[in-house]
Amino acid sequence: MNWEKGIVMRFHSNTVSIMNTKTKKREECVLRGKFKKQKIRPIVGDYVEYTLNEQEEYGKIENILPRKNNLYRPKIANVDQAILVTTLKNPFVDALIVDKFLIQVEKMGIDCAIVVNKVDLLQTSEEKELLQLFLDTYSPLYTTLPVSSVTGENIDKLKIIFKDKISTMAGMSGVGKSSLLNSINTGLKLRVGEISDKLKRGKHTTTYTELLHFDFGGFIADTPGFSNLELRGFNKDEIRDYFIEFLEFSPYCGFSDCSHTVEPYCMIKEKYEMGEIASSRYEDYVFIYEELKKRGDKRW
Ligand SMILES: Nc1nc2c(ncn2[C@@H]2O[C@H](COP(=O)(O)OP(=O)(O)OP(=O)(O)O)[C@@H](O)[C@H]2O)c(=O)[nH]1
Ligand SMILES: [Zn+2]
């Protein structure tokens, strides 16, 4: 029997929906008993091999291919990139929030692109300067794209970023994550953000993630990720590794375990004072470091 290759799109109570990687056909499969014994279960995003038998209603998953990575929230494997959506107006999202999202993405070790949505609202020269400052800060570090789902500005470029990849979207409630998905692929609906979800239902709902397929190629997890903005489970001493522009300079700090806050001979502070490290990034780093230090390791 031929083994077909597919990607796990979603779970039902007893079956798993697979999309064939070649034909893009959806198939319903069941798990072979051996997975239960081995205590391995596929998760959404897994590449699997499966067989189809004409006489049987469901295909059978034969093998789970090795995972490139494994996100916890949303629970999904083989993520290629996180798309962080932010805005500078309606709502104004502080750079500190952006940096907290980026810290989580860096910890997972996945690529990230930052999308600044609603640029149609930035009309005054002050607002335009704000956008320029944002781009100057982040575009040397990450792929950064100003867009508008209302005017369609740069939506074609956004499609290219998503194409043929498995992506997860992140960003505060109301920045336009669902609107952007709709403008690149009509009819795709990201499920409401965690914050609005909680407000509406008044409780924490456990949601399972599903992959949505773009008609131009690629997948997106339907529940947003990286929303642990209190950085629960993070240690103050690991944060410095997630500010990627620090990495080339930190070997030249006077102390090998320099926290880049109070120590003498700190190369990061020097670069910040010289303007070679963006001031908001360094200041957010120190703020987050102090926040985690105050909290200590005990509480979490
Ligand atoms: N002016 C303007 N408004 C936009 C744009 N994109 C989205 N909006 C509006 O912003 C509001 C929020 O958009 P959503 O797509 O629901 O935002 P979301 O990020 O999915 O929000 P959650 O589901 O709460 O996480 C809606 O009223 C949209 O019409 C844009 O590019 N420009
Ligand atoms: Zn230092």
UniProtKB/TrEMBL annotation:
Cofactor(s) this protein requires: Zn(2+)
Keyword RNA-binding attributed: yes
GO BP terms, alphabetized: ribosomal small subunit biogenesis
Keywords, ordered alphabetically: Cytoplasm, GTP-binding, Hydrolase, Metal-binding, Nucleotide-binding, Ribosome biogenesis, RNA-binding, rRNA-binding, Zinc
All residue ranges annotated as the EngC GTPase domain in the record: 77-227
EC assignment: 3.6.1.-
Binding site for GTP: N117, K118, V119, D120, G171, M172, S173, G174, V175, G176, K177, S178, S179
Subcellular location: Cytoplasm
PANTHER family: SMALL RIBOSOMAL SUBUNIT BIOGENESIS GTPASE RSGA, SMALL RIBOSOMAL SUBUNIT BIOGENESIS GTPASE RSGA 1, MITOCHONDRIAL-RELATED
Name of the protein described by the UniProt record: Small ribosomal subunit biogenesis GTPase RsgA
